[in-house]
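This part of the workshop introduces the protein records we will be handling. The question running through the whole workshop is how a given chain folds. To make this concrete, we reproduce a full record directly below:
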Amino acid sequence: MPAWAQTAGQQSEQQEIDAENDRRREETELNGLRGILDPEQDEQSERGAREREGADGLRDTASPDTQGEDENTTGRGFGDRLDRDNIATSQQSRDQDTVDETEEEDPYAALGIRMGSFLLFPELMSETVYNDNIFLSSTSQEADWSLELRPSLRLQSDWNRHSLTGTLSGVRSYHDRFTTENEETFEAGATGRLDILSTTNLVAETNYSESFEDRSSTDFPDNAAERAKTRNRDALLEGNHTFNRVTLTLRGNISEEDFDDGTTDTGAIVNNDDRDYTERRLTGRVAYEFQPGVSAFFETSTNERDFAEPIDDDGTRNGSNGHDVQGGLSFKLTGKLTGEASAGYAIQKPDDASLKDVDGLIFNAGLEWLASGLTTVRLDASSEVAETTEIGSAGNIVRAVVVSVEHRPRQHMLLGASIGYEIETSAGSDEEDKEWVIGLTGEYNLSRSVALMLGYEHLESFSSEPGGDYAVDEVRMGLRLRR
């Protein structure tokens, strides 16, 4: 063999030996690191080693004469980065597994009934209710027992893209002594989401409900013998688009509130047509995600409220328009904190120039904190400018906040406690109503389909109007059936 050929062969053999030694040294170092971080990384490391061998072979074939100490060092650096990526990916996977275990599906959650690409969730609640002050009186309390039935259906799509949800629910109650307080509530709704792009979607929602006016309402007629029936209709259309870290939202909705006429104790008609109105609202929002899972947002909205009867029974011109601005933070920290909180300012200007504007600070929140795998804490807050037909007032600002805790001492048991506060301030008058509510709940699951329910609520209401204070205690015991 020529001398020049022997030299090339020896060089090639020496290069192969050096490369093999380098690979063995790298594998030894990575095995030590792997043993510390994750003993289950052997297969990924071997795959990474094979990829490095292919890369080394490619470099040898492409430029055998340029291999040197610098390129071998570069090769080892690439291999190190590759394995670090594998280790990081595995660590992320283990973290996600930990989150999944923490948020493991409730073994007593409803499974639903498969209907093609939809899931149907039927449910029926049957409760016995005791109320010690059913007419919310401050002087002559009347107690009563009732049986309440609460059927509901929810149809949920099971698609990879888009979504569609339909709901149907109602309440039917039968009182022992005072049948005028029987409930006949009906509600139906549908929500759909169209995923146009991965960063763009449209959301549409519509709802319809029928119920009886609550006796605690500020506008409830003092001389009414029965509660008036009310109907609510609303529709919403929303568009969302995200680019980089910015999300833009534009939302429009329209809602209608309709009251039936009532009767007094003497049989006279109580006209409620002057309380019927339609609200149109347009809302825009800009949100910026300044760190993963945490976004800051700014939101503004404008509204217009038109009444079916432009002139009230007392001669006041009905209707108003207003706007509000608010800013806050939203959280999507899986397993920790989710929801959003905001604060701002709202103003509602009545069409009647003799009435005072309704304005003030507002705050809204819907936060859920997973304190542990067994305990969840929620904060719910809301503010709204509510219409009123009270003489001399254009509306009320209603602010409410509720803090609730749920704890699961056993997998089949769920205990809850809550405390809430609400204040309603009337514009143009000194009237102010306050409420404190304390609640306790318990749920005992016999199976996925059957659960025993227990609840207690104490409410105290204070009013600036004489004789407006009252307290109520209510106890509920029932059975829930679902699929």
